[in-house]
Amino acid sequence: MSTDPAKPNVVLILADNLGWGELGCYGGGVLRGAATPRIDALAKEGLLLHNFNVESDCVPTRSALMCGRHPIRTGCLQSVPAGMPQGLTPWERTLPEILHDSGYVSAHHGKWHLGDIPGRYPSDRGFDEWYGIPRTTDESQFTSALGYTADVAELPYIMKGKAGSASENVCVYDLTERRNIDETLVECSKDWLSRQAAAKAPFFLYHPLVHLHFPTLPHRYFEGKTGNGDFADSMAEMDYRVGQLIDHIESLGLADNTVLIFASDNGPEFRAPYKGTAGPWSGTYHTAMEGSLRVPFIIRWPGRVPKDVTSNEMVHVTDIFTTIASITKSQIPTDRPIDGIDQTELLTNPLNSKSPREGFLFYIKNDLRAIKWRDWKCHFVWEPKVNQSSGRLESPYLFNTTRDPKEETDILVYNTWVLQPILKMKAAFDKSLKMYPAPPDPLKE
């Protein structure tokens, strides 16, 4: 572990499809059927962001997190089935790779979803070791599905690997393992943290949870705990698992020099019976609504990030890459556009600082759906609910997200001036895409 304040340890816990309105500290908790005391307590120990923004679904967000670039640049546009070309190309530089150059060791325990063939597993992309699932958790339903056989669709596996060696299958990922996996992942991270406590190198732990992705099924110990069904029971388990990691970090004496981040990759689930909520915002992931963009984010860094503070300043998932690079004195690539902005000043001085980010473009696959600028959101395609698109708009819709958080009343005709800064952002980004086209992915040629 590192005791050097200039080289803090970093622990990043990423929930899967956790909506803005689920946690107690975001207005949910018992109102959603399950208290979340451990995550709520974490928020009291650091900074909670109200305006942390992500990409449209699992693969785009995780790619943006890992390389600080929008997925429209990297080609990580959507989730695809096993056997289809997917993942970050070898040309992309990942967060653990740049941290490794600064002397960090790293581990990944959880859901990867950025490559499922040799050369693209976590242990091939900068992590010293990994354990988890290479793709998505709905695959755990395969072996229970009517008509499924392994000769027509690949069996899903839980896997593990170490840098320099081939990754290997551990066991079939079925519905039984779906209930057990977050418990197993926590045990993996606890074991790894214990080993790092006795070492001298600074470390980076990336722990992408499986909860609350569908099928949202709790561990048998939590089944029936809340009396409010599987989703609430799974929220209670998720909160408990985060608490286990926090307790272990503190028991090892690591907390004082560890940056601990808890966030979500996407907006809430929309599939029954596991529907989530984005609180005051409309929409779910796979849309450009504010409920898709905004998700929970909490950071604790003792002595550097003040306690019990909230901020509505805008931060984007690409900023995590750049900010962790800044905090750890790591070098980001200079041969390609990096969309992430260093938010260290905002995170360490939120009461007196403003975010250097004014907005961002939001794509779903290759389509520009919306642009967010300050308190304004301009939609070029209107799809308030998944698969309910009215298509590209002849006249865009404009909303003020402060006065109209559910994006119900288009006010473009009264505020056409807002198109000037928004379209200038688009023009600059379009120019960048032309100047710096992504290298071709050899798997897709």
From TrEMBL:
Alphabetic keyword roster: Calcium, Hydrolase, Metal-binding, Signal
Q: Where is the signal peptide?
A: none
- Kindly give the InterPro entries that the UniProt entry links to this protein: Alkaline_phosphatase_core_sf, Sulfatase, Sulfatase_N
Q: Report the coiled-coil segments.
A: none
Q: Which CDD domains match?
A: ARS_like (cd16142)
Q: Extract the Pfam families matched here.
A: Sulfatase (PF00884), Sulfatase_C (PF14707)
Which SUPFAM superfamilies does the entry link to?
Alkaline phosphatase-like
Which cofactors, by name?
Ca(2+)
Where in this chain does the record put each Sulfatase N-terminal domain? 8-328
Q: Which GO MF terms are attached to this record?
A: arylsulfatase activity; metal ion binding
- Family of the protein in this entry: Belongs to the sulfatase family.
What protein name does the entry list?
Sulfatase N-terminal domain-containing protein
Species name for this entry? Coleophoma cylindrospora
